[in-house]
Every structure is written in structure tokens, then in C-alpha cells.
Amino acid sequence: MIKQLFTTLVAGLTLSAQLYAADLTNVDEIVKQANLAAYYQGADGRSEARMLIQDSQGREQQRQFTILRRDHEDGGDQQFLVAFSRPADVRDTVFLVEKHAGTDDDRWLYLPGLDLVKRISAGDKRTSFVGSNYFYEDVSGRNPEEDNHQLLETTAEFYVLDNSPKDPDSVEFSHYRVWIDKVSMLPMKIEYYDVNDKPYRRVEVLATEPVQGIPTVTKSRVSDLVSGASTTMEFRFIRYDLGMDSSVFTERSLRNPPRQWLKRPE
Q: Which residues pair with 26 in a beta bridge?
């Protein structure tokens, strides 16, 4: 009897492992799950980021800021607010995003030295984010609907996808390749290719850890493969499901950031 129960248990565990290990084959489903894993953890979220910018000569700059996020719905519209605290020349700079699933995002940047709110046009979303190698679009994520997706390969660890823009004139790359972790579904590496099919830009995850049971990126890097410049970002004090409402993410918050949410949680 005990042997029979043991055999049944082993068979059940084996079946569960086989089901868990079954590879996804639908590229749209892979893209959907990766997008949710990368940008929609919890109903909202907060983290503090430390950014180290290193130019091609090895000179370094640092940035420190807090990121707030709120989702309207999984995979749909979102709101982001990024408030800078260090160094002194960028302190109180605030970046606000209204991310739209079906149309171009709305983005604003508040420059305290000029007391100016600057609207960032859709054409500028793939330009440098506060002098770093990250782009504005990297902060809130690229809309998956802007690209055509192809599953190139499934390895023991990754789904490897190739993605080409539906509107080639709107971007500087010809296509990009993504390595998606099969367990966490987090995109672990992205390489962008120019018109000569040479990689010129790389985004890679350097560290992850579970936060409230959610696989979360805690360190990443963007590298300019042509100049040798790079930007490394570390994320700390990460929290999800804090209960932020939409009033946190209004244009009023550009000049008057929501201090209660920027304060480090105990």
C-alpha cells in the first residue's frame, strides 16, 4: 500500500514537472507574459534607483531617483512618476508618463532650474534619459504592438525572440533580439541592430531577486557597443501594492511631488 502511494505520488510530481517544463510556442503569448513580468508587477510599485553613467573616456556621473508606478489594468494603460534627488544639478527634476496601450504615450519633464514643464514628443522617446544610455522609452517600456515578433529559438533557459518595427522610420534600429527567462518570463538581454545588421546597443539584467514573491530586476545595464559608454542602474527599497491613486500622477506633481510616496517605506 505504501509502495503504491509512493508510486502514485512520484507519477504525479513527474507529470507536474512535465507540465511546468512545457515550452510556450505562441510568440504573442510569450511577448504578453514578458511585458507583464517586466512592467506590471503588482497593481502599483515604488523603488529607488541609483544610476552610474560612464562615458567612453571612463568618466563617471551619478543619478539617484525614486520611481512610482500605477497600473490602470494589466497590460494596459499605466502612470509613472520619476523624481530625482541627487546630484544637486538634477535635484527636483521630475519625469511624468501617461502610458497608453493603443496610442503614443504622453511624457513630461519638469526642469526646476528653469521652472519649466517640457513635453516630450513621441519622436523623442528614443533619446537619452537625463544624459544616460537609457532612453525615455526604457523607463516605461516599449509598446509590444509597435513591433512584429518572431520566435527564433527555445533553449533550456530562454525564449529568443526577434522583433522588427512596424514603422521603421520612427526608430533608429532595424530590429532587436530579446532573451526571455523561461521561468520568470523577465527579458534578461536585449540587443539592438543597425541597418547593417550589427549590434550597437545592449540592455541586460545583472541581478534579480524575489520581492513580495515577485521576480524583480534589481540591477541592469545599458551599453553603447560602438562608443563603449554604459549606464548601470541598481534598484533598492522596492515595494508593490501600496495603494497609490491616480492623483499621485498628475501634472501638479511635476512641481509638487507626492512626498508621502517618495518617502522611503519603513
A: none
Sign of the CA dihedral running 138, 192, 38, 123: positive
- Cell readout for 54 is 560612464
Distance CA 47, CA 225 (A): 28
Answering whether pTM is above 0.70, one says yes
159-209 per-position pLDDT tens digit: 999 999 999 999 999 999 999 999 999 999 999 999 999 999 999 999 999
Residue 160: partners with Cβ closer than 8 Å, 6 or more residues away: 151, 152, 153, 154, 177, 178, 179, 180
